[in-house]
Structures are given as C-alpha cells and as structure tokens.
Amino acid sequence: MTSASSIQAALTDGVHAFAQWLHNWWRIAQLGAQLLTLALWPSSYTPAYRHALLRHIVLGTAPSLVGFTVLTTLLSLIVIRIVLVTSVSYGLTQYALEMMVRVLVLELIPLTAALFTALRCTIPRAAEVAALRSGSEWGSGSDPLHMQVLPRVAAGVVCALLLAAISCGVTLVLAYLSVYGFTTAGLPAYTRTVGHVFSPGVALVFGLKIAAMSMAVALLPVASVLITPARPGALTSAELKGLVRMFFVILLIEGVSLVGNYA
Amino acid sequence: MSTEEDSAAPPVRYLELKAALLLALLVALIGGTALYLMYARGVFEQTQRVVLLVDDSEGVRVGMDLTFSGFPIGRVRSVELSPEGNARILIDVPKKDAHWLRTSSMFTLVRSLVGGATLRAYSGVLTDPLLPDGAERKVLVGDTAAELPIVVAAARELIGNLNKLTASDSSLAGSLDNVKTLTEKLNGPQGAMGALLGNDADAKKIAEALDRVNTLLARVDGMAKKADAQVLGPDGLVAGSRTTVTQLNAVLADARGTLKKVDAVLAEVQAVAGNAREATTDLGALRGEVDATVRKVESLVDEVNRKWPFARDTELKLK
Q1: What residues of chain A lie within 8 A of the CB of B70, using their CB?
Q2: Nearest to A253 by CA among A60, A113, A72
Q3: How far is B27 from chain A (nearest CA, A)?
Q4: Closest to A194 (Cβ–Cβ): which among B9, B15, B40?
Q5: Cβ within 8 Å, pair B2-A142
Q6: pLDDT tens for residues A6-48?
Q7: Which residues of A touch B72 (CB under 8 A)?
Q8: Which of A90, B22, B63, B89 is most buried, most CB within 10 Å of its CB?
Q9: How far apart are CA A29 and CA A244, in angstroms?
Q10: How far apart are the first and last CA of chain B?
C-alpha cells in the first residue's frame, strides 16, 4: 500500500514536472514571439531603443572579433592539417577538400561561433538582465522588454551571425591556402568543390541552422532568467537552467541539421 | 537602454559608426557568401543542355560533374525516367566549355568500387561539328561492381578445379604417391638403381656387371701402363723413332749431295745436246749438197741415156 502510494506520488510529481517543463518552454516561446514582434515592428525603433541596440551590438561583438578570429584560425588549421595528412596517407586526396568544407564550414565552425557568442556575449547579458530585474526600477519606467531585453537579444543574434560569417570565410580561405598555396590557379577547382558541397538543400539547412543557433544562444539565457520568479536565490538556478536549455536546443538543431544534410 | 544604465556605463565613442561598420561587415559577408555560392553553383553561367541516356542511372547524382580529360565541363542538373524506361541524365554544360563536345563525342559512365560514379566525355575528332543544344546521346557503361559476379564465378570455378586437383583420388594425388614410392626406393638399399629397374634381381645383375667392368678397367689400366712403357720408355717407339729420324737426316744429306752431282751431269748433258743441235744444222746443209749432187748425177744419167744409141723411145705419141 505504501509502495503504491509512493509510486502514485512519484508519477504525480513526474507529471507535474513535465507540465512545468512544457509550461516553461511555452513561456520561452511566447517571450521569443513577443521579442520578434517588437523587433519587426517599425515603431519600436525609437532613438533611445536604437541607441541601446547599437551600443549592445558594439559592446557585445567588437571585443570578441579578434579573439574569435584567432581561435577559429587555429582550430581550422589543426583540423585542416589532420584531414589533409589523413587523406594523403590513405590516398584519398581528391576528397580532402570536400571533407574539410563539410566538416569545418558546415558543422564545426557554426557550432563554435554559437558557443563563443553564448559565453562572451549572451550569458553575461542575461546576468545583467537578472541583476536589473532584481532592482526596484524594473518595470517602473519604460517597457523593460523593449528597452532592456530586446537590444540584448538582438545584439546576441547579430554577434552570433557575424562570428559565424567571419569564421566561415576564414575557414574557406584557410582551406584553399592549405591545399593550393598562395596561387590563384586552384580557384576554379576550389569553387567547383564548394559548389558541390553547397547544393541548394545543404545551403538551406546551413542557413537555417546558423539562424536557429543564433536565436537560441541569444534568447534562451535571457528568457530563462525572465521566466523564473524574481527571487534572490532563484537567479543562479535560472542561469544554469538557461545554459542547459541552450545546450539542449543547440544539440537538437545540430541533430536536425545532420538529418537534413545526410539522411 | 534606460537612463540609469546609460549614466552608469562608460560612453562608446563613435558608436553609430562602429555599429554601422559591424552591420555592414555582416551584410557584406552574408551577401558575398551567398553570391559566391551562387557563382560556384553555376547560377550566372550560360549553359547548354546535353541529355545522356542510360539503362541504369545508379551512382549518378544531381550535381556530379561531367569531365573531359579530367576537367569538369558540365554538371548533372537532374535525372529522370524516359517514357521508354531509360534513365535520362540532364547535364548543363557552360557555353565556354561546350566546344569540347562534338557530334562524334562518346560519353561513359564508370562505376568504381571506391568513390562515386564518374561521367566522362571523349571527343576524338575535334574538327567535327559542335554538339547541338539539347542533344541526346547514349552512354557507355563500365561497371566494376557488375563485373564482380563474373570474377566471383571464375574464382569459384578455379577453387573447384583446385579441389579436384587436391582430392585424395585425383591424378595429382596419385602422382604424388608415385613420387613418394620413388623416393622411398631411392632412399632404399638399392638406391636409384632399384628405382630405375624396378626389381632387386636386375639391380644385382647391374651391380655384378659394374664389378666386372671395374675389373676390366683395372686390366685396361695395366695394359695402358705397358703400352706407355713400350711407346714412351727408354727403349720405346719414340726413342727408336728419334734415332731413325737422325739417320734419315744423314741419308737426306747424302741424297742432297748425289742430287748436286746429278745436276752437274745434267748440265753436261745439256751441253752435249747443244752440240748435237749444231751438228744437226750442219747435217741439213750437207743433205742439201747431197741432194744437189744426186740431182746432178740423175740429170747426167738422163743425158747419157738420151745420147746412148740403143736408147729406146720412151716418148708417148697420140695418134
């Protein structure tokens, strides 16, 4: 009898937790829709909002550019070298370039850019939002969602997109230089290989993946803070939950993109 | 951004310019990448269509290259089924590369074990007319995977033959048994002789014959020694011959002296012959004189007869 009641209690708790989990995701989706509506609404672009948006874009993106470019260069060089040496040793050099572009540009670099953006830009901005939210001015003046949250989320999206674009460009150039050296003779063949890899379907999945990852790393940390009740003890838990949610969504996006590309 | 946060955070210099640069960089990168990918996909190229017909389009995928001498000159745009049930491979060839394709060009589809299939074009006569837009051509198929069953069948047959060869009742096994018997006989007391003759009695006869031959050879050896002594010994034939040769030399010297004397005799005979020739010449003159004398005597007798009274009339008269 005791075991039956404990099982029933565990089941009830599980259902409650699942319902809570779904409710949280629903609130995050609602928040994301509100922010998207605000971002697309022309009347949102007041001078004060535009100033805040530009400020967050510059402060969030510019300090990361050089460091991330160096990091991407090193990572790309290592992977390119590994792929080249392996393909030469197996006599499969004709597939090396295509493999580099697939492994680096399609898979590794967007993921790295998203994670770097999360660590350097969006998670600190979520902490700022949490700190502001615990203050007394939150909600007393202008709309905080418009003036505090949207600029940070939009800056996070821009940062993730810019880092991904820069790293992809750097990787494409490095792959070319590693295979052909400092000459333009290999450009037609290289362009043809890149064209092979980026078929319309793959290009679409690639674009959607980068956009989805950018929005995920920009929105989830902030949204996790916002959907948690504003209690002093709950902030750390909210940031951790946001991090877990972000990793979960990134993993999901990566899995879906792999299915879309190779299934 | 709220007023209180703006006042707390340090101001950013040239904020709008920096933001504009970052956004411009983002737009340029995304736009440039999109344009490059479109260029790489051949969106901006003017192309002409070549349709290749093949029974089985396995291995052909959209986007794969059509190569000419190893250089990609075209790209598969789509693969579809024709009303006849064949596969139609639609290929876009850029106008700038289309001159490599002629009406006499051949197209092949090669499927290898490792890697994908490859479409190749061969133009033997580059002076032939250009391949028209939308031309349909049959594809020659070279399929490595399709040849595998043939190779496997051949290998199976080979293995079957090997099994027959190595079976216990096969001729090879019999031959090996014979070889084994032969080697056993070779290793036996009679050795190779026993193996060659087959039975021990004959082998014994051969052995006895060999003994006799050995005895004979010993005797021949003794005879040879005796002959050697007789020929080459101190009183042998060679020594006698040497003495004979010496004596012959002396005889030859005597003969040489005798010949010289004969030469002198011959010289004298020659002189005698010369004298005789002169005497013969004188005899001719003498004979002429005798002849003249005889004629004179004859004419004298004739004169006497004519003048003689009892002379007869010897003249013949015709009446």
Answers
A1: none
A2: A113
A3: 9
A4: B40
A5: yes
A6: 888 889 989 998 998 899 899 999 999 999 998 898 888 888 8
A7: 192
A8: B89
A9: 16
A10: 201
